[in-house]
Amino acid sequence: MTEVLERELKGWAAKGILVRIQGVISNLEAQRQMAEAKNYPKIYNIELNADGPVTLLGARAVFEGCSDGELVEVIGYPIINIFRGAVTVQVEALGIKNAESEEQQAQRRTLNANLAALSSLKPARNAFPLLPMVSVDLIHSAASSAQVDADFFNGLGGLIERCSVNRVPVRITSAQEIAAAIRESEADILVIIRGGGPESDFAVFNDAEVLSAMAEKTSYRVTGIGHSGNTTLLDLVADYSAPVPAEAGAHIRDQLALLVGLVSRYEKTIKARETQIEELSVDMELIQDKAEKEIERLHSSLQSVTKSQPARQPQPASESKLPWVVACVLAVIVILQFFL
Q1: HSE-up (13 A, CA, CB side) for residue 263
Q2: In CA terms, which of 48, 112, 216, 276 is 20 to 30 Å from 90?
Q3: What is the enclosing helix (H) or strand (E) of 300?
Q4: What residues does the Exonuclease VII large subunit C-terminal domain cover (predicted)?
């Protein structure tokens, strides 16, 4: 089978059968650089995402002026290749043109500029505040029909009592208002939420000014923008990105519950240590009482021995050591009193 395929189909090209394919081009720049470095006349393995993946090749001149991410229309003919018994079909491009409308081209240029701005920001991750009460600035739509703030509060649940929430209504389609509200926030937690809508409404959350303002904040940043299918560049800057506004509130609730549990365990540990210290203090008092009684007994023994000894008579070796024993006991008492 492999021999038949290689003999009959390898390098087969139907140059009389032209096809027109429209899709988003990718992997072009990397393959172009490889072709230039190795001085290939053609560029290979270019990917085109149409209804399914299509592999392109073509002369380097054909792809001049094209870049990754563009919606293009390609005219070419199919080529069949055989490699280790596997059949692959590619399209050799004879011509290529941009298929985007002026509006689409402008949107893509804006998105690329915002991506470049995001790459230059390199925001750090901020930790959830370890506080018994937290202040929250909630940036949300000022539209009277917007009910997503209610979803957020439902997500907070009973732990809302540990939050001081400041509502910040803005025009949710204005990048300038959103960026200004972000910069003015001084709360421990900054939350940005909005409901669903057309994809064009979410472009504001890809804006370079909004991304820059968010990246500068040292507070804990949470986003709950749109529905689970909506993703924005602002979600990449946030410390936590929730799929929906209610989940943003639930995340803060869960973090507060975890903090309450940690504080409770810490308080129990402190109480147990205090109990141990009290017990040790009682034991030390008992030891001190015993030491004082022992000193009194030794003093009495010393006085009785001194009275019973004749004047200038040498003391036995065992009795001559008694003052040293008393001195040692006194030293122990002094040390115990110092630590108590």
Answers
A1: 10
A2: 112
A3: helix 245-308
A4: 150-306
**What distance, in Å, lies between the first and last C-alpha atoms of the chain?**
94
CATH architecture of 2-100: Beta Barrel (2.40)
Q: In what order do the strands lie in the sheet with 163-170?
A: 163-170, 134-141, 189-194, 220-225, 240-242
Assigned CATH topology for domain 119-258:
Rossmann fold (3.40.50)
Backbone angles phi, psi at 183, to 5 degrees: -65, -30
Indicate the length of the chain as a whole number.
Answer: 340
- C-alpha–C-alpha distance, residues 1 and 7, integer Å: 10
**CA atoms of 214 and 129, how far apart (whole Å):** 17
3-state secondary structure 160-200: HHHEEEEEEEECCCCHHHHHHHHHHCCCCEEEEEECCCCHH
> How would you write the pLDDT of the chain (340 residues) with one tens digit per residue?
667 766 666 666 667 788 899 888 999 999 999 999 999 999 999 999 887 788 999 999 999 988 888 888 999 998 887 777 777 888 999 999 887 777 767 777 777 777 777 777 777 889 999 888 999 999 999 885 567 788 899 999 988 899 999 999 999 999 999 999 999 999 999 999 998 888 778 889 988 899 999 999 999 999 999 877 778 889 989 999 999 999 999 999 999 988 887 766 767 778 778 778 887 888 788 888 888 787 887 777 777 777 666 655 555 544 455 566 666 666 666 665 655 5
Give the residue carrying structure tokens 């602002």.
234
d(CA 66, CA 93): 13
Contacts of 156 (CB under 8 A, 6+ apart): 163, 249, 250, 252, 253
Contacting residues for 155 by C-beta, under 8 A, at least 6 apart: 245, 246, 247, 248, 249, 250, 251, 252, 253
pTM: predicted TM-score of the whole model, two decimal places: 0.55
Q: In the chain, where are the structural domains located?
A: 2-100, 119-258, 276-339
